[in-house]
Structure prediction request, 723 residues.
Amino acid sequence: MKHPDDDELFNRLEAEMAGTRADVVDLDKARAARETDPADVESEDPTVPVMVDRPAPAVTGPGYLGRLAGAKRRDVVPLWLRSVAELKTASAWVARHYAHATGYHALRTPVYAARLALQAPTGLARFVGGTMRWMADREGEPVRLAAVRREDAAEYLKLSRQRDGRVRLRTLVAVLGMFVGLALALALYVLAPGWLQAVSVSALVLALGAHGRKADAPVIHRAVELPKASKLTSDIVLRALGAIGIPAINQAQSKGRDGFEFTAPITRDGPGWRAEGNLPFGVTVTDVIEKRERLASGLRRPLGCVWPEAESEEHPGHLVLWVGDQTLKAAPKPAWPLLKSGTVDLFKPVAYGTDQRGRWVAVTLMFIAGIIGAIPRMGKTFLLRLLLLIAALDPRAELHTYDMKGTGDLDPVGEAVSHRHGVGEEDETLKYALADFRALREELRRRTKVIRSLPRDICPESKVTSQLADKRSLGLHPIVVGVDECQVMFEHPEYGKEFEEIATDLVKRGPATGIVLLLATQRPDAKSLPTGISANASTRFCLKVMGQTENDMVLGTSSYKRGVRATMFAWGDKGLHYFVGEGSDARIVSSTFLDAPLAERVAARARKVRDKAGLLSGYALGEAPETVTGPTYDLLADVAAVVPEGEERVWNERIAARLAELRPEVYGGWKGENVTSALKPHGIRTRDVAGTTEDGTRTTRRGIVRADLLKTIAERNEKPGAA
Ligand SMILES: Nc1ncnc2c1ncn2[C@@H]1O[C@H](COP(=O)(O)OP(=O)(O)OP(=O)(O)O)[C@@H](O)[C@H]1O
Prediction:
């Protein structure tokens, strides 16, 4: 007969035998080996297989100190108690709750009194009836009747005697009580002042009214309906995990195991419960996130309450499950700290939304290039406006705002503080925007030169700092450019390529020079958000999208696969988005909701601060833009000029050097890569080109084919704006 451990034994032996020997294993011998010390076996009998699992050494892994050093310490003081803002918010909620309850009941006091007075006769009847029953010892009656039915004379006599004694005593107490009561009433009637009489009678009536209440008609109703959130227990979590249809969990549970190993107790975490632990081997958190809806069904909680997450420092099978008391949408949001007062230092993180647990999430706008993507009507414009308002609150920041949708959503910011502001997709606006973008490119070049020329001790990291931004003479103040519906720019038949070229440059080199580009689009695809831009953006905000392609376009390649899926947001989840940036993993954030009047209020405050500091400029002052530095050059023509006929294939580094010679003020400092990225938007592909270096070595480097260049120029001339 097969021993029940044989399978396990085989599995263990498999690893040992694989590739090393092909002996037929004698199971009895092997079993015996399991019971003997493997070390002995190894030394004494070479034919017996060596066990794969060694007995645990006395000390496993790092020593005590090592384990202590690596231990994860839980917070002594919870986060919400450490943050003054969160403590204030929590206290304000509690205060508001009780103020509301007090007001609610105070207003209804007369109604409550009338109801109680009406119920007083019933209460009196109940009181009298109850007293009579008590005096007559009615509670013992069923026992006495049972004795009668059993015809048990001895028992009956015993019970009757006891009852007689009890009735006598209770009657005495009742009569005494009645006399005391009457005497008290008489004394009150004769001696007490009017108010005390009134209070006593009212108290008596109310007490009788309360005694006469019906169970199904409460006198006092609740002032607030508290959401009922049941406690999250391990049973509920296991039940839900077993119901989502992951085979490894189901198999474990069918064998009587849990299928999930809790690594910490289930605790309260903000306005919800947090459970964490290890999924079975091979199951990842992404597998669970994919089945979030089923998980919510298993937990019997609304979808908006259930947030399974991975923890970046743990293995991919470590699940952190946070279950909120209320859906993210319904949960009360703390007031935005910058709503009524305060200014911003763009070099520091600024709170712009809250996470599932109601904690502030901050964004540092400096040194980023951000993209915002979503399907229409999910709150993309509101989010962009919020970020621009944050920028507006740093008086040093120069704002360039473009609302290509043309509905005026960015006007509160634009009218109040923007240096450049454009609304609509008319040709005039696009020309204005293009001129501004060209000026920004020039500014970018100027800034790179300024930064390069600064001594190391002033500019140690070769990028703008808050101190450098303060020095107006250097002109390195933050510039924040926000474009809503940016696809209008990039898809424009005439200016699209140039917009793309400049925006790509701003995304790549802008952050270090203090220029921040924020682009929002409702159609995140390669045309509306060119890959040169989407791939280089450092910060991403993705509200609800419909599919994997859009998701990865906004959040970065493979995000969908890793379980970062903005497709899971519901239609009503406005303002809810995945936020990638600030050097951390994707986080779910509910952005602060500021409607147009609130936005106007914040913008007006921002304008006041700027006005005081004398930092208002451009559009906000009603100034027309200075004559725009249009393209004083044509890149394609310039490249054609430096690649003479006969030179069919040429290295980009050579083109860069020749361009720099041709127009040092424009192409000074260009390298081969600059040529590559500048030509890319025009559709000119860079390939491997064989050539000879200055010292005569034959080698292959990146370059272009002259025919491609000429073809693109011809197409452009034929169809103005095509390239
Ligand atoms: N953070 C938020 N919280 C709650 N509701 C919001 C939030 N942000 C936006 N909304 C609501 O969503 C609606 C749509 O917002 P918004 O105009 O920003 O969408 P959009 O994605 O820009 O749409 P479109 O693509 O049509 O421009 C707004 O009218 C607003 O009421």
